[in-house]
């Protein structure tokens, strides 16, 4: 990866910066079946020859969407008596792409398809008018579009050349936090819509729930747009290459907010979907649910079963969040090089620089199996330590100076090349805590007495109010899973991410409001790992009715 661009990079044509960067450009091509589905559901086939129809493909790759559009155009032109001029046809479709090799492929394939209806000269004219070798986010787009359709690139912030990222952020307010490039594609795509126009993207589902998607969610919920349909492709392979996150198709129109059709499977009929959206009628298929409650400012979208969502919303109204109830959520320390900073007891460095460590591996069995490892602490109360005060530590770290200096954190502060990314807090190791691994198929909550410091793939909860054994019982009785499943998107193999932003959503009663007998029972359930007891106490505690219990599986 090469994001270290020269200082004069701002002077270079911006597309050259992309070419100079060796990072992945998010090239994941869409399978035909999905392209056909999205185009049919957006109503393009019957609208394509209308004069006001203009279609934008913001990241056209090797032409997956454009080729299908060109075929439809040729077929429909044969049927219509209303002759469109070549100039009008040349303005009908616009496709952007930063990779010239992808564009070359798209150009050749398009010419071949167009030759079915147009002369060689006219095909060449159309292809040259349609394709733009430009960065879509920085290009000047002329006019508005009735349809924006495609599969935007998925490029993480650290892989976007810095000068370009800062321009994107100036232009697109939704690209906040650690927003991926596709967030900007949504914003610019929505801005490009004519009134009534439709944007249809296939893309990872992360943004509908996570922190960096919040401004985009707020934009969509601003009253100017409606989410027409959302199709979760969990467990499907819609691309030619395997991806680690789960994709979804979202169609958003520039219409007043009304309802969203949540589609359960891509085996739903796209034409029926289009008709149900247009006629605002009741969906005929069981695979399509009409929902009025999608979108609430910046809040995550809750697209699961609507009755399950209603239970979560009731609990949120009646109970405070974990933090409001006096629990704190922390993330274990990231070092930037565990091979160097995680050591065995016999490594010869000053005793007070070694903090006993617990890792996700140590709790894999569901209990703590200590690996006898230690985390090197490069901090004290005043900040990063001076290595001259710790000669043994200095000798050890200096042996690894090259590796440690190449970390991002060391480059930003070269004189502190030996510090870990996160501060290590020995006093937190000494606190009783609940440990939760970052990614798992099931929520795991392990009690730790107060000796070990968690490392980076572990979250941990400490509390001055709640008894942690009792809290462990509440979380494991199903309350933790209910909130996490509602707010977290799934990652590879259907695993959930137990990130702090999701853990913070969990609601629990105030400890001081619990009757002494309830407290005792919860503590007992936690200490003895008695799931049945925990579930029965938790049902009473949250007033969970039998029908709610059936819905949420508690
Ligand atoms: C996910 S692929 C999708 C390609 C095609 N639309 C499809 O569905 O198969 C995204 C494409 O966007 C291109 N790309 C990346 N950044 C871009 C940018 N800033 N402007 C235009 N295209 C970009 C990549 O080169 C890649 O071909």
CATH architecture annotation name of the largest domain: 3-Layer(aba) Sandwich
What small-molecule ligands were found?
Answer: S-adenosylmethionine
Describe the biggest sheet?
9 strands, mixed
Query: What percentage of the residues does DSSP assign to strands (E)?
Result: 15-25%
Mean pLDDT: 90
- Backbone CA Rg: 27 Å
Counted beta strands: 21
CATH class of the largest domain: Alpha Beta
Cα(first) to Cα(last) distance is 47 Å
Low-confidence stretches: 1-11
Query: In DSSP terms, counting alpha (H) and pi (I) runs of 4 or more, how many helices?
Result: 22
- Helical residues, percent: 25-40%
What does this structure look like?
Strand 14 (379-380) and strand 15 (383-384) form a beta hairpin. Mean pLDDT is 90; it is low at 1-11. The strands form five sheets. This protein has a nine-stranded mixed beta sheet with strand order 3-2-1-4-5-7-6-8-9, sandwiched between helices. Strands 10-20-16-18 form a four-stranded antiparallel beta sheet, with helices on one face. Helix content is 36%, strand content 16%. With 554 residues, the chain is of the alpha/beta class. It has three domains: 16-303, Vaccinia Virus protein VP39 (Rossmann fold), CATH 3.40.50; 304-326 and 464-554, no CATH class; 334-430, no CATH class. The two termini are 47 Å apart. Bound molecules: S-adenosylmethionine. S-adenosylmethionine binds next to helix 4.
């Amino acid at each position: 990866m090469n994001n270290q661009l020269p200082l004069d990079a701002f002077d270079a044509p911006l597309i050259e910066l992309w070419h100079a960067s060796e990072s992945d450009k998010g090239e994941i091509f869409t399978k035909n079946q999905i392209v056909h589905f999205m185009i049919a559901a957006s109503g393009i086939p019957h609208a394509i020859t209308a004069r006001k129809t203009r279609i934008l493909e913001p990241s056209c790759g090797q032409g997956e969407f454009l080729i299908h559009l060109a075929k439809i155009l040729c077929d429909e032109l044969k049927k219509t008596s209303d002759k469109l001029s070549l100039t009008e046809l040349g303005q009908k479709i616009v496709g952007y792409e930063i990779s010239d090799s992808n564009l070359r492929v798209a150009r050749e394939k398009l010419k071949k398809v167009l030759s079915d209806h147009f002369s060689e000269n006219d095909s060449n004219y159309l292809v040259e008018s349609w394709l733009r070798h430009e960065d879509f986010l920085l290009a000047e787009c002329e006019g508005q579009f009735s349809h924006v359709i495609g599969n935007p690139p998925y490029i993480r912030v650290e892989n976007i050349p810095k000068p370009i990222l800062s321009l994107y952020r100036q232009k697109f307010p939704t690209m906040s936090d650690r927003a991926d490039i596709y967030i900007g594609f949504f914003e610019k795509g929505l801005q490009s819509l004519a009134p009534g126009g439709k944007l249809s993207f296939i893309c990872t589902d992360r943004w509908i729930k996570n922190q960096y998607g919040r401004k985009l969610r707020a934009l969509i919920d601003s009253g100017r747009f409606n989410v027409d349909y959302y199709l979760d492709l969990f467990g499907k392979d819609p691309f030619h290459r395997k991806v680690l996150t789960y994709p979804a198709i979202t169609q958003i129109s520039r219409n007043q907010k009304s309802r969203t059709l949540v589609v359960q499977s891509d085996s739903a009929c796209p034409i029926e979907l289009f008709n149900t959206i247009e006629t605002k009628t009741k969906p005929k298929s069981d695979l399509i649910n009409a929902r009025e409650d999608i979108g609430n400012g910046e809040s995550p979208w809750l697209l699961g079963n609507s009755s399950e969502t209603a239970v979560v919303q009731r609990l949120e109204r009646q109970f405070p969040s974990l933090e409001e109830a006096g629990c704190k959520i922390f993330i274990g320390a990231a070092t930037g090089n565990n091979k160097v900073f995680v050591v065995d007891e016999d490594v010869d460095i000053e005793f007070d620089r070694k903090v006993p460590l617990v890792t996700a591996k140590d709790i894999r069995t569901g209990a703590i199996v200590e690996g006898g490892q230690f985390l090197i602490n490069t901090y004290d109360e005043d900040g990063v330590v001076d290595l001259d005060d710790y000669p043994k530590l200095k000798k050890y770290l200096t042996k690894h100076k090259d590796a440690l200096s190449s970390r991002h954190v060391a480059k930003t502060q070269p004189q502190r090349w030996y510090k870990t990314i996160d501060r290590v807090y020995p006093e937190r190791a000494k606190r009783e805590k609940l440990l939760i691994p970052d990614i798992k198929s099931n929520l795991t909550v392990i009690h730790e007495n107060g000796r070990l410091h968690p490392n980076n793939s572990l979250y941990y909860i400490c509390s001055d109010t709640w008894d942690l054994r009792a809290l462990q019982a509440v979380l494991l009785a199903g309350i933790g899973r209910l909130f996490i499943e509602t707010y977290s998107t799934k990652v590879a193999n259907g695993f959930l991410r137990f990130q702090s932003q999701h853990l913070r959503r969990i609601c629990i009663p105030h400890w001081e409001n619990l009757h002494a007998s309830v407290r005792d029972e919860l503590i007992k359930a936690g200490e003895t790992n008695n799931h049945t007891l925990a579930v029965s106490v938790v049902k009473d505690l949250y007033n969970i009715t039998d029908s709610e219990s059936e819905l949420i599986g508690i």
